[in-house]
Amino acid sequence: MSLDIWMRENPLTYVWIGSYAVALIIFVVEIAMVIHKRKITLQQVRLMRDAGVEG
Amino acid sequence: MAINWFKYSAPTTFYGLAGKLIPWFAIFAAILFAIGLYIGFFVAPVDAQQGEFYRIIFIHVPASILSMFLYMIMAGYAALGLIFNTRLSAMMASAIAPTGALFALISLWTGALWGKPMWGAWWMWDARMTSELILLFLYLGFIALHASIDDPRRADRAAALLAIVGSVNVPIIYFSVKWWNTLHQGATIKFGGTSMHVAMQQSLFIMMLACWLYAIAVVLARVRSIILERERNTTWINDLQEVRS
């Protein structure tokens, strides 16, 4: 079955999966990236501080 | 009681304030997304011409509007940083860019998905779509330029210039449907009123608010990491509870 026919037979599934699920994935990836960035930045700051204390 | 807003323009005070605000913005964004989607899919009626496909509007329009507004806010912060040399402004501009780029991407993606059943094509080199694509490239250019310069202050200045020059694209996106004969439809919601069903308007408004709150929460979370990174040699950063633990 071609995509054209499928989307016309299942418009809500097309809208949900194509738009909202993709937007949700993008939001989840962005949130994960922000959390990861915070984690590694905190690690870097702690390492710098420890290196400074030892120096 | 008057609040001294200038106090929060310093990274030292803004860092703590942002930390307190993030959970509230995130919680309200999640609640509003749920309400907006419920109204959009279960209350709003089917469109007479477009059928169920029109429901892409509830993510497409907020994402498009946010991509433009975030760019203007980013350019505004970048200009403030360039003119007044304020540290937090440049950090805010850097924090906004990835979120703005993702909203531009969502706008283009959902637009393509809407275009296929309505126009029979995923993509057309239409003025509105092309200018939105240029907006995505401007965001990516800002991020790439900033990342390519080692000295953060020099990177801020170079990226700020790009952001300011690129801001000319935002009115072009907005007015493109008026200035040129485009395939993309004109504005549905105007100052003079709208022909949309009230449930569609409610869903659109709630989804727009949810996207705004989400964007603010994510930008605040990102700017806190940028502040940590840039101010890591200061004593106030080393005195923070999360750094000491």
Fraction of residues in H or I helices of chain A? over 70%
Can you write the helix and strand succession of chain A as a string?
HH
The overall average pLDDT of chain B, rounded, is 91
Range of helix content of chain B: over 70%
The largest sheet of chain A is: none
- Please give the largest β-sheet of chain B: none
Gross geometry of chain A: rod-shaped
**Radius of gyration over C-alpha positions of chain B, nearest whole angstrom:** 20 Å
β-sheet strand percentage of chain A: under 5%
User: Structural class, from helix and strand content of chain A?
Assistant: mainly alpha
How would you characterize this protein structure?
- The complex is a heterodimer of chains A (55) and B (245).
- Chain A has two helices and no strands.
- By secondary structure, chain A is mostly helical.
- Chain A is rod-shaped and about 65 Å long.
- Chain A starts with a helix and ends with a helix.
- The relative contact order of chain A is 0.07.
- Chain B is mainly alpha-helical and 245 residues long.
- Chain B has one domain.
- In chain B, 75% of the residues lie in helices and 0% in strands.
- Chain B is built from nine helices and no strands.
- Chain B has helices at residues 11-43, 57-84, 87-119, 127-148, 152-166, 169-179, 198-230, 235-238, 241-244.
- The longest helix of chain B has 33 residues, at 11-43.
- Chain B is globular.
- The two termini of chain B are 35 Å apart.
- The relative contact order of chain B is 0.17.
- The model of chain B has no long low-confidence stretch (mean pLDDT 91).
- Classes of the chains: A mainly alpha (55), B mainly alpha (245).
